[in-house]
Structures
1.
Amino acid sequence: MREIIKTGKTVDDAIGAALSELNITRDMVDIEVIDEGSKGFLGLLGKQAIVKIIVKDILKESAKKFLDGIINLMDIDVKYDVEERGNNILINLKGKSVGLLIGYRGETLDSLQYLTSLVVNKKNNEGIHKRVLIDAENYREKREKILINLANKIARRVKEENKSITLEPMNANERRIIHLALQDDPDIETFSEGEEPNRRVTISLK
């Protein structure tokens, strides 16, 4: 965690100098006043104020601030954990109202993830893109298992009926899961066709 010590005629001056040097705003730091300073007699021999500025984890804080705004705006009962691992920021939502943030087949969750990523990377001055991954009570893992089972089931039908089958529209991530689930099947090939948001996966015999 980055921290600096700054001096100034007043506490506010010292804080302002530190924020200016770091190029961040006051809500992104914790402030510890080491010495409030004093003006001295007739303005002479005064002591300067000394503050320690501790920079919060800016990217995590920006994600939290954005999510708090969404949750408060919707007035829903949702909590979350935020963890940073390397270049990934992992967020797990939980609570009674979490379904409202998942939406139909995870569409709301995907939108929330996309918007949070925009907010986080706008604050990111590290020069490395941070990947934001948002899940809600293991929804994505459960959905992946459902899609893998679906892919295998449809592949069996394709073989039995000797005809291609086109699935319902899916987002890019869900289509990828279907493709990966069947990529090692020697008799099956998959391909995507159509335009977003109605792009579909077709499963057929090679």
2.
Amino acid sequence: MRSTVLVARSLQKASVPPALLSDPTPGSLQPTRLAAHVSMHLSGRHCPPRNLSTDTSSMAPAPRALFTSPLAAASTGSRWKIRLDASVMLSKGKESLLIPDNAQVISSSVVDRCPHRSEIQSVALAEGEDDCLILGTVDSYGHLIVSRLDIVADDIDRTSYSVPPRDCGVGEGSWAGVCFSPMQQSMVAVARQLCKTIDIYDQDIHVRSLRTLWYPSSFSFVQYSPHVNESSSLLATAEGSQLSIWDLRMNNNGGCVHRITGSVGDIIYSTCSSPSGLIASGGTDRAVTIYDPRRWSALSRWVGCSKFEITGLAFSSVDESFIYVQGVDYEITCGHWKQSERAFSFRGDSNWLGFSKCANNDVIAGWCESGSIFIADARQL
């Protein structure tokens, strides 16, 4: 019997100005065009972070801003800040879905440091030094641009570098993904679906290429505790009905050290990892499967956690026994995967274009085709 429960602290909704992002297209099924970050800096002052595990609804919330960098169906990106208010009273509607309150957009601007020549497919954020964020964007041809964004100041014109695709962008464009190593921020991976490749870079230097058997749809560096030496050497990739594990230090078998095959005909659309090294996957089977890479076996399987295909997953930072599940039915669910129990859920107003969880805390953001952004803040009881 578990001793902790994860509950929603607030759910808010903000609208993107149409002049900033007009007529976004769904792009691909994977909602990878949004990245979120919680900043404690507002109006030039520093606010101490809240302890998500000890806060109660009666305590005055610290002012915070949700920093988001969503990329629309265009070759440029945008950035805006949204004020989070944990004092808002939550209400529930049909099927116990949370009802959002309106949120305040503090500022919005165009990020002109990522001028791609085709539609941006994925965006990722990593925390850097000196109050900076590292922003990675990749377009449908695999062109990678990495920029540095200032968290506090409005000036976002920082150093950046660009890495063209290995084949110079020849051929047909498709979904492409990008992710940073959690332990080595200079290391970034770029996946290209139609090319069946994953390229590993150390800044703008190409390290190696991984060749997948099927079309990659999601990938993530496998995280471990800091005291383990293998922290950033493993990469989990969803390709077709298989979950493949790659060791960047190995050359045998192209670096692939293990393959886990799901049901024939079921496609895995999303995978993620927890700080302890657990790997989650989900897709057309509408179930979340948790794997332990140390034993290459399934620990648990949460069946029926989504009514339709699963295209987004993220472990809770407060308690990794909980996981966030995003489905194509506009719904995002938080639940306990060991007990297969739902904690709370909410629904967007149109197709998801972006789904992102902030690092090191449980703030979840979803960007809809309508231009609405839904932000949920969870805490532990």
